[in-house]
Amino acid sequence: xxxxxxxxxxxxxxxxxxxxxxxxxxxxxxxxxxxxxxxxxxxxxxxxxxxxxxxxxxxxxxxxxxxxxxxxxxxxxxxxxxxxxxxxxxxxxxxxxxxxxxxxxxxxxxxxxxxxxxxxxxxxxxxxxxxxxxxxxxxxxxxxxxxxxxxxxxxxxxxxxxxxxxxxxxxxxxxxxxxxxxxxxxxxxxxxxxxxxxxxxxxxxxxxxxxxxxxxxxxxxxxxxxxxxxxxxxxxxxxxxxxxxxxxxxxxxxxxxxxxxxxxxxxxxxxxxxxxxxxxxxxxxxxxxxxxxxxxxxxxxxxxxxxxxxxxxxxxxxxxxxxxxxxxxxxxxxxxxxxxxxxxxxxxxxxxxxxxxxxxxxxxxxxxxxxxxxxxxxxxxxxxxxxxxxxxxxxxxxxxxxxxxxxxxxxxxxxxxxxxxxxxxxxxxxxxxxxxxxxxxxxxxxxxxxxxxxxxxxxxxxxxxxxxxxxxxxxxxxxxxxxxxxxxxxxxxxxxxxxxxxxxxxxxxxxxxxxxxxxxxxxxxxxxxxxxxxxxxxxxxxxxxxxxxxxxxxx
Length: 555
What we know:
It comes from Streptomyces iconiensis. By secondary structure, this protein is of the alpha/beta class. It is about 45% helix and about 15% strand. It is built from 17 helices and 15 strands.
C-alpha cells in the first residue's frame, strides 16, 4: 500500500552538508586513488632532474667584476656631473655584438660571436657602478678565459669609443681654428708692413681678437687631449672554478621529485574530474541525496560459507538494521525494498537475508519476499540447506500465474531467530505477477504490529520490477559497489524512486568480494533421499553458535 493512503511519512534524511575542509580532504583522498599517475609523474620528475643535473655537471662558470668610470666629456663643451652614468646602458653595451666580436678575436675563437655571447651573463650589483661578467663553458679554464676576455673587450671597447670621440672633437676644433690662424697671420703681415701705426688701430684690435679666439680653441684642445680616458678597471679577475656550476645531483633530484609529484597530482585531478565512477561514500551521498548506512568490510576470497554472515560482516548488517529501525520514514512504514543499481543482485540478496535475520533478532515478525521472478536463486539454496524440502514445495495454493506461493516458509536464522520467506519463482508474466492482488496482500503484512517487510528485487536499471513495487513498499535501500557504479546511475536511481513515490533511505556499500564471496551460498548437499517427504534420522543436538546454512523448520 502506498504512503499516499496512510499517514504522511517523515521526509528521509538528506545528504549531510560538507564544509570546505571536509570537501578538500575528501578530494585529496580521491586523488590518492590514482597512485599510478602520481608515481608516473614522480618518475618523470626524477628522470628530468637527473638529466639536468648530469647536463649541468659538464659546465663551469667563472666571473669577472669591473668598475665603470664616468668619462667627463661626452660632447663638445659639455660636461656631466659625477654619478650620472647609466648602468643599464652599460650592461647592454657589454652584451652587444661589438664587444662579442672583440672577445672572439682575443680568444682566437672561430665560434660565431653571437654563440659566445649566449653563454655570457652581465649583471649590475645593486647600488654599485660595477658589472659582473659570468661566462659558462665546458671546461674551467675556458670559462675563466671567456669571462676575462669579455671584461677586457668591454673596457677596450669603451676606451676606444672615448678616444674616437676625443679625436673627432679635436679635429672639429682644429678645423674651426684653421681659418682663424690664417686670418691672424694676414693681419699680422698687414700690421708689420704699415708705416703709420695710428691708422692700423682697427687692424690691431681685430688681430688681438683673433689671437684670443685661437688661444681659447687651443685651450679646449689641450683639455681634450689631457682627459683621462680610462673606462674602468678589473676588480676581480676570473679564475678556473673547482666545481661545476650545476646545482648538484641531490638538489636537482629533489626539485624534479617535487615538480613530478605536482604534475602527477594535476594529472590525477584531471582524471578525477572526468571520471564518472563513484569513488567515495561522499560521492554516493551527493548522488543519492541520502546517507550511507554502512560499508561491508572486505574479507578474503575463496572458501565455502553460509549465506548468513558472521563476525564483522554480521555486525555491520546488524548496525544497518538498527539504523533503519530508528529511521523516521522506515519506522512509520516498516517496509524496505533492497535493490542494486545494475548488474548482479547477489550482494543485495545476501543483504536482504541478513537484514531479515537482524530484524528477527530485534523481536520483529519479519517477512522476506524474493521478488526476483526472472532468475530466482534463493529457492535453490533453501532446497540445499540440510536436505529438508521447504514447505512451499509441498503445499498447493500458488497465485493464478504461479507466484506468490500460498504458504510462507519459516527460516531458521540461527541465534538471530526465525523469519518467514516467500521465495521467488519463474513465471511467464512478471509484470502481472508483481502487480497482482496477492502481492498487495503480502506487502500489507507490514501493517501488523511489530512486523517488518523486506523485499528483494532485481537491479533497478536492468528491469522495471523494482519500480513496480516502490509505490507500495515506499522505502528503498540501495546496495552497490562504489567502484563499479557511476554517479549518473545513482542519480537516475534516485529520480526513478522519487518519481514512483518512494524514498531512498540510504546506501549500503560493499567492495569486491564483500557481497559475492563474503556471504557464500550454502554448499551443495548430497542427493536427497528417494522419498521427498522422508525426514533425516534424528541426530545429536546442533550448536547454533555457528550457522552452517539456512534451515527450514517444519512446523
